[in-house]
Prior knowledge:
By secondary structure, this protein is mostly beta strands. The protein has a domain at 29-63. Helices cover 6% and strands 38% of the residues. The chain contains 1 helix and 5 strands; from the N terminus they run αβββββ. The relative contact order is 0.22.
Amino acid sequence: MELRTRSRPDYLQSRPVIECAQCGEQLFIPEWSEYVDDRRARHLWRCEACGYIFETTVRFAAA
């Protein structure tokens, strides 16, 4: 039996991954999210590796 290795697992290719703004650790799920309005959502991220906390804002295209 041959063990195949990949540089990135399939699940990382299927969804966007954000990196910690402090240490670069990959983060998959925000601590919390909220809709600011019909075109923006805000996410709070907490890195388990270094404890850094930061926010991102997603802007959706106008429909």
